[in-house]
DNA sequence: GTAATTACTGGAAACGATTCCTAAGTCTAA
DNA sequence: TTAGACTTAGGAATCGTTTCCAGTAATTAC
């Protein structure tokens, strides 16, 4: 067992030099003679020495660790974002601590505290809410740079990766209208966050351009997750004035809606036009040709990693915009 | 900005005591007088002091961090395992560093080295391979306890969470046989790991009890992931002697197989009996009533967390067995 | 009243690195 | 030959904690 750890002192003793010299050789830093380099390197090789990351962090004041906080790593979109970010960060010598907030504000707060205690170098987060005083305080007290996913928090020292939902949703809605639908329902998550505002914006723009009046009763914004969408979908079809098309936002919401439709024996693409916002793995294989608005989660991960590394390097905050793409499939029509 | 960090020295100065006393109060350790406790606590509260995790780790020799390494966090089963483990570990005061190995042995090796340098307290891993000399060496040199997911590595200081695949697969196979199928194909990942061996065991037992001879040509084991299963499925139906039932193992393989079937216009449950090993989110909503062998990923995460915490606490290595459940649905028959 | 125990506190040595400062040695120039 | 510049290497301080060791004051036992 590697009970007794090998430290820089062991290397120094073996090579017959001072520990400061060992450190200098290893960091490739200043002027060291060839002889010194050779001595130290052979001692390092012989002992199989590797510097202790902990001690380095303490001394250098940087942990080379990024905190990644999301509501739900189980969400396939987020898991791809996380994977992609991790890949990118690792190439830059950073590790990623992953934490779920379970969509809970209190947990989110504790997570930030944890990040602070761990002296994380930066945070990538998909927040539960947005732009509350609590968020402002927490982030500014954190003392390390932050990249937010799909959130707009102004006047704060944070970069952001935002997706151009409006555009994709607008295309989708316009296409539904073109296909003859006018009672287009919209079911999604919390209304107080950028992603929902931005999606609704696209939806309303398309309606407005087609001179269709917005029916507030068809818009159901409330909570993330399956349950809310399930209930709202059931409700939409419970009375008179049922919609002829349905757009559902977020993977959880789409799932809930599809479950409700299944129970109601309403077939998307047959009895009802349907567009899902965001796809999930095997979307093309498993679903019966559902239309969607797609965004590239790998790109989101990539951009968030890049932005946080830039901030750590001292650059100014920035925004990266990830495009969305309307993918027309069979369910944009009824047959 | 929280530029100037508040240290234990600041607290000690403010309270007019020695830093050792502050530490003693905070750790609730030995005999401290009520007066001392009060002084320190009010100073802590006033300054908003929180101990630096890094310095604590260095001094105590424990980082309260667990490394979690998987082939692919994008796999929804694994992402649930990860989430569940993280939840459990956090309750015990541990954070989780998540790393992907991308199914690459070289990357896996580097990841272990990283864990070692970071002085991780323990590792939960789903290895690419199993029981190679490399694995033995790496794990024993790691110096910290290890919990393996679905792997059997004997004679090593590692606990394991293993699933009783054999039982679920046996039930599934037997049910297919009972329904009149005899040419049951089996497509899954690498054959040199426990999970595949164990699944095949259940498959062969069911055949043997029904006195059906194993047709090696129907068994396709090779690689994890979509591509391999896609190719093999196509191949199975390319010539004569096509199977009348198909069992596909792992989410990746099932996806690949379903994609191939879709292209071949073979409908599971209609033209072919089909059982998927492992489910994915929304399985019931999205798939056309596919049968499956289910195992509870939350339970796997829970058990792996428990086992690693036990090992850290000095207990002996152990195995946790997670049951599997055959879920008969429409695709166990042809119509 | 003295000795022995106990309760509490402060000082200092770790933990394992980096980095600043200084001093010794080498080399060039006058 | 000596002063000055330049390399190179060692010593010590530092990062922010915990914990061991002593030492003082207070309490108890005789």
TrEMBL record, chains A, B:
Pfam families: LacI, Peripla_BP_3. The keyword Repeat does not apply. Residues 6-60 form the HTH lacI-type domain. Keywords: DNA-binding, Transcription, Transcription regulation. Coiled coil: none annotated. GO terms for molecular function: DNA-binding transcription factor activity; transcription cis-regulatory region binding. CDD domains: HTH_LacI (cd01392). The keyword Cell inner membrane does not apply. PANTHER family: HTH-TYPE TRANSCRIPTIONAL REGULATOR GALS (PTHR30146:SF109), LACI-RELATED TRANSCRIPTIONAL REPRESSOR (PTHR30146). This is Unannotated protein.
